[in-house]
Amino acid sequence: MADRSDRGLQRDRGRCEAPEPIHNRTLRTATATAVGLAVAIAVTLGRERPLVAGPRPGGRVVDVRAFLPADFKTDGSVSYQEELQRALDEAKSGPVVLRFPQAVFRITDPAGLRVHSHTTLLLHGVTFVVAETVRRDGQVFVGRDVRDVTFVGGRIIGRRDHWPDSVNVAGVRFYGRCRQLRFRDMVFEALSRNAIGLFGAGPQAMIEDVWVENVVGRDCCNVYIDYLQPGAGPVEGSKREDQGILAFYFVRNFLVRGCTLERSRSDGTHFYRCVDGRFVANRVLESKMGGYFVETSSYIVASNNIIRGNGSRGVTIERGSRFCTLTGNVIEDSGREGLWAPESSGLVIVGNIFRRNGRKDHGILDGEIMIDKSAFDPSKTPRAEDYLIANNLFITGAGQDATIRVRNRSRRIVIRGNVFLGPTRLILVGGRDQGVEDVVVEDNVGATVRRLDRLTPGSRRE
Prior knowledge:
The protein is mainly beta. It has three domains: 21-58, no CATH class; 60-289, Single-stranded right-handed beta-helix, Pectin lyase-like (Pectate Lyase C-like, 3 Solenoid); 293-462. The N and C termini lie far apart (73 Å). It is 9% helix and 38% strand.
């Protein structure tokens, strides 16, 4: 009778009967092979996560200890970088799941460990420490034109307190046309480049399908000197790709979720020429410069994040970015504006809390939101247009001159239904002589509006 029922279920699947739960199928597979067991563990850690983030069915499980001396040191006093590379090279002959022993591994060559396609690295309890003697740029792990790579667990620790500011070392970097990259439950500390840097080759050769979950990045990135200090900008020897604990260039279809990114020496994040990104339920704290930074990107959504105490703008969306959303976030205590959104289009800023941004009192950059056209824009976007700013809560401080500024070359901006609290509740809107057109300001609680007929002195591109 049970056999007939099973056959009937197979016949009717997709019509009226629910499919067999995926965890049942996973657990059944786990009894057959060790790789299946690893997949079941991945599902237990997070049922909503895709199975691709776990070890691959059919991949060989490789114990990295087989490549190390029998009496290898676990305290990081000896470098086994060549031995680890030989273990990683096992993926050249087919998919592998690399199981690392719990130990501290010393990285002495900043060229890093090369990762191949179809590799899963199980790193719980493993720490990689970059040697204090490193004097060349590099990273701990690197891959180029790879696909189907997963990191689970592990810590990557730099020694930036021993390195010159011109030495830039990242945690993980991938280049070229890559696909299916997963990073989960990792910690990165004291690096002088990105924790994770992904650099596609261009709009026709993007990195695609990336998940970054429950990652901590702390005290990373190159040094960037604040605009109010002498020698403002990145220090000599570093470049803009070294900015951002997470730096994604030409990346399509990414998810960053549940991460903590704190005390970057430059920006917390940098998403450049990206498409279809989700930045959800993260914390970006106390970056030296900006917190959440989107440049020339499209369809990037940010929701339910805490963006607090960053040294410059809390959020920047700029240079021709299109159809990006900022919803349900807390953005507070930024050095400059909570949000700077010049020369973009189709932005939705709804349901956020903006609280006491602009604490550095840097001229007109002390408000909660600034919309304008920046002086330097490589995207050559003509104006800011088609923004909806609605249902936000603004809590201002005494040092601010205005809460929202809509300035030169902005049009079709709707500011509606927001709540303004605190000593500064002013919305400043430029006139037609400034290229400001069709700005609707209505139903805002507690706000006053002033429309200007002369341009307030401009801000430089930062």
